[in-house]
TrEMBL record:
Keywords of the record: Cell membrane, Cytoplasm, Cytoplasmic vesicle, Developmental protein, Endosome, GTP-binding, Hydrolase, Lipoprotein, Magnesium, Membrane, Metal-binding, Methylation, Nucleotide-binding, Phosphoprotein, Prenylation, Protein transport, Transport
GO biological process, any: anatomical structure morphogenesis
NCBIfam families, A to Z: small_GTP (TIGR00231)
Coiled-coil ranges (or none): none
Record localization: Cell membrane; Cytoplasmic vesicle, Autophagosome; Cytoplasmic vesicle, Phagosome membrane; Endosome membrane
Catalytic activity of the protein: GTP + H2O = GDP + phosphate + H(+)
Gene3D superfamilies on file: P-loop containing nucleotide triphosphate hydrolases
A Pfam family reported for this protein in Swiss-Prot or TrEMBL: Ras
Protein name as annotated: Ras-related protein Rab-23
């Protein structure tokens, strides 16, 4: 059955101006490390981490995109398919704060309205702040985004950011499952499948129409779990 074999994987893009701490945030979250060195990201980078949300296993695939405009053409291509987004600005960089609207627009243009959070990083440098707290809060309110003040350096609120996104994404899935009538096929198949393995996908021709039969891919599933928790698909 689908419910037992489906794996929840979320593609998350982390965006914001250069040097706000995007790579550091992903490294901290996935590897538990922080380095003081600044190595500008060229194009995109990728790390992943598996977490449990309400007892469900969720795989977060974190895409680290370059903050420099010169890489815009490359990075935009990687926004495609993103299911969640982290918008980051830095406590010590006013331009990065002012650029948030434009980052949001860039992501929205590619993937529409996906679960998104706003993060003010480097809160350990609050004494050097160039952004008033009311301004940051007003921005979050205007964009209707959950707002986190974080310090990757001090490991403050980093886990919470990604947990919140995973929560929001699962909530949306549940909502969609409730709203969308799940497509029942006559042979007890339903319309959401893991399509990653070609060996589990067969294609026939019937009455001149292509019929694609997709079956869940058991190889990728470590646990037999229903990602919708108490929410039944059938
Ligand atoms: N004090 C402080 N420094 C931080 C924090 N997070 C990151 N940094 C530093 O900020 C610099 C830039 O961090 P990166 O993670 O490389 O920034 P980025 O946003 O990925 O930059 P691009 O790759 O150019 O887009 C590095 O020197 C980090 O060590 C933080 O929470 N506090």
């Amino acid at each position: 059955m689908l419910e037992e074999d489906m794996e929840v994987a979320i593609k998350v893009v982390v965006v914001g101006n250069g040097a706000v701490g995007k790579s550091s945030m992903i490294q901290r979250y996935c590897k538990g490390i922080f380095t003081k060195d600044y190595k500008k990201t060229i194009g995109v980078d990728f790390l992943e981490r598996q977490i449990a949300v309400n007892d469900e296993e969720v795989r977060l695939m974190l895409w680290d995109t370059a903050g420099q405009e010169e890489f815009d053409a490359i990075t935009k291509a990687y926004y495609r398919g993103a299911q969640a987004c982290v918008l980051v600005f830095s406590t010590t960089d006013r331009e990065s704060f002012q650029a948030i609207d434009s980052w949001r627009e860039k992501v929205e243009a590619e993937v529409g309205d996906v679960p998104t959070v706003l993060v003010q990083n480097k809160i350990d440098l609050l004494e050097e702040t160039v952004i008033k707290s009311e301004e940051a809060e007003a921005l979050a309110k205007r964009l209707k985004l959950r707002f986190y003040r974080a310090s990757v350096k001090e490991d403050l609120n980093v886990n919470e950011v990604f947990k919140c996104l995973a929560d929001k994404y699962l909530q949306r899935l549940r909502q969609q499952a409730a709203e969308t009538e799940v497509v029942h096929m006559t042979s007890n198949k339903i319309g959401v499948f893991n399509t990653t393995s070609s060996t589990t996908c067969s294609q026939n021709s019937s009455n001149g129409k292509e019929v694609i039969t997709l079956r869940p891919n058991k190889q990728r599933t470590k646990k037999s779990k229903n990602p919708f928790g108490g929410c039944s698909l059938l």
